[in-house]
Design a protein that fits this description.
With 413 residues, the chain is α+β, with helices and mostly antiparallel strands. The chain contains nine helices and 13 strands. The longest helix has 48 residues. About 3% of the residues have low confidence.
Length: 413
C-alpha cells in the first residue's frame, strides 16, 4: 500500500508539473508564432494594397510622431508576386525582390494557391495573400524562412529544457518521496502491528470468559445470560480472527503459496456447501461454472474468497431472493461473478463496499451478523493474485461483485 501511495505521489507530481510546463511553453511558442504571422500579414497587406510593390517612402511623420512603415522594410523583405486571370492563366510574375526562387517555382506555388482558393496561409516557408486586381488575381508570397527557423529552434530548445527539467524533478521527487511518505508508512505499519498484537492479547481473555461461562453453566445450568455471553464472545473472537487475518495478509502478501490448481473444481466444491444453506432460507441459488479452468495462486485463499462472496450474497440478499455464481473465460482472463438481489443498494455506496467495517445500513443494525470486513479480505486476496474486484448494480435492487484475474494468472487445460 505504501509503495502504491509513493508511486501515486510521484505520478501526480510529475503530471502536474508536465501540465504546467505544457501551458507555459505552449503559450510562449503560440504567442511567438502568432507574432510572426501578424508581422507577415501586415507587410503583405501593404504589398497587396500597392499591386505587389512597396509604396514610396514619405519621410514626413504624422502629427503623433508615428511612422507606419520602417524605411528599411522594403530592403529587408524578400517577396515575389504572380498575377493570374480568372481562368488560371499566368499573366505576369515579379521576381525582382527575391533570388532564392525562380520563375517556374513561383508559378508552381501560385497555381497551387489558386487551386486551393485560400486567401491567406503558408506555402512552405512563404506566407501568401490573394488580392483581386480587376478581373485578375494577384498572389503575393513573402519569405518567412528566417523567422520560422528561429521559431522552430526556440520551440525545440524550450521543449528540450522542459524535458531535462522534468527529468531533474523526477529524480528529486523519487529520492525525496520516501521521506515524504515516511510518516504515513510508519503510521500504517503501527496500525497493522497494533491490530496483530491486540488480536493476540484479546484472544486470551476471550478464551477465559468462554471457559468461565462453561463452568458457570455446569454450576447453575443454562440460562439466557450465559448464552448471550458465549454468543457475544464467539462473535468478538471471530471478528478478532478476521482482523488478524487481514492484517497478516497486508503485511506479507508473499505468504500465499502460488501454485497451479483446478480453479473450476475449487469453485464447484466451495459453492456446493452454500446450496443447502440457500435452500433453507428459501432463496434460489444457481451456478454456471465453465469446466477445465485453472489458476496460478493460493488454493486455500481462493476458496476463502469464494466463501466470502457467497456468504455476503446470502446475508444481504432479499427475502426469497435470487443468488447466482458464474465462472468463465472472458477476453483471455478468468472472470468470477456473484450476483444477488437485495432490498436496496445505492450507486454511491458501491465505492465503499471494500472498505473495512463498511456496512450499507447506516444504523449498523441490519441483523445479518456481519462485521463489514469480509469484502476487505476478499479485496486483499484478489490484489495479491494481481486481479481486480469491482461491485456494480443495474437497478439498485441487485448487486454483482466481479473478480477478474489476468491472463498471466489464468490458464485453460
Amino acid at each position: 500500500m505504501i509503495k502504491k501511495l509513493r508511486m501515486k505521489f510521484i505520478a501526480l507530481t510529475m503530471f502536474s508539473l508536465l501540465m504546467v510546463l505544457l501551458v507555459i511553453i505552449g503559450t510562449i511558442n503560440l504567442l511567438n508564432y502568432k507574432r510572426i504571422v501578424e508581422n507577415a500579414d501586415s507587410v503583405l497587406a501593404i504589398l497587396s494594397e500597392n499591386n505587389g510593390i512597396f509604396p514610396k517612402m514619405n519621410n514626413d511623420r504624422r502629427n503623433d510622431g508615428f511612422n507606419p512603415m520602417s524605411p528599411e522594410l522594403p530592403y529587408e523583405t524578400r517577396y515575389f508576386s504572380v498575377l493570374i486571370d480568372s481562368t488560371g492563366k499566368i499573366l505576369a510574375a515579379d521576381m525582382g525582390q527575391i533570388a532564392a526562387v525562380n520563375k517556374d517555382t513561383a508559378v508552381e506555388y501560385a497555381r497551387n494557391v489558386f487551386d486551393l482558393n485560400r486567401q491567406k496561409g503558408f506555402m512552405g516557408n512563404y506566407r501568401f495573400i490573394q488580392k483581386a486586381s480587376g478581373d485578375n488575381t494577384r498572389i503575393i508570397f513573402m519569405d518567412c524562412g528566417r523567422n520560422l527557423t528561429t521559431f522552430r529552434t526556440f520551440l525545440w530548445i524550450s521543449c528540450a529544457i522542459s524535458a531535462l527539467g522534468l527529468l531533474a524533478v523526477f529524480c528529486m521527487v523519487a529520492l525525496l518521496s520516501k521521506s515524504i511518505v515516511k510518516p504515513f508508512s510508519e503510521s500504517y505499519e503501527k496500525q497493522k502491528r497494533f491490530i496483530t498484537d491486540a488480536g493476540h492479547e484479546i484472544k486470551t481473555p476471550l478464551t477465559i470468559i468462554d471457559a468461565d461461562a462453561d463452568v458457570l453453566k455446569l454450576d447453575i445450568g443454562e440460562n439466557e445470560w450465559l448464552q448471550d455471553i458465549q454468543k457475544q464472545t464467539q462473535r468478538l473472537a471471530e471478528l478478532t480472527n478476521s482482523l488478524v487475518c487481514l492484517s497478516r495478509m497486508e503485511e506479507d502478501q508473499n505468504q500465499f503459496q502460488m501454485i497451479g490448481f483446478p480453479f473450476s473444481d475449487v469453485v464447484s466444491e466451495t459453492s456446493q456447501s452454500f446450496q443447502a444453506l440457500a435452500k433453507s432460507q428459501n432463496k434460489t441459488f444457481n451456478s454456471r461454472i465453465q469446466p477445465m479452468l485453472s489458476l496460478h495462486g493460493d488454493e486455500k485463499a481462493i476458496s476463502q474468497l469464494i466463501s466470502i462472496l457467497l456468504d455476503n450474497a446470502l446475508k444481504y440478499s432479499s427475502e426469497n431472493g435470487d443468488i447466482s455464481l458464474s465462472l468463465e473465460k472472458h477476453n483471455k482472463n478468468i472472470r468470477l461473478s456473484v450476483y444477488n438481489t437485495t432490498e436496496f443498494i445505492s450507486q454511491e455506496n458501491l465505492k465503499y463496499l471494500f472498505d473495512r467495517f463498511y456496512r450499507t445500513d447506516p444504523s449498523r443494525n441490519s441483523g445479518t451478523g456481519g462485521y463489514g470486513i469480509g469484502l476487505s479480505i476478499a479485496k486483499t486476496i484478489v490484489t495479491a493474485h494481481k486481479g481486480k474486484i469491482t461491485a456494480s448494480t443495474q437497478d439498485e435492487h441487485s448487486l454483482t461483485i466481479t473478480v477478474t484475474f489476468p491472463f498471466s494468472q489464468a490458464k485453460t487445460f
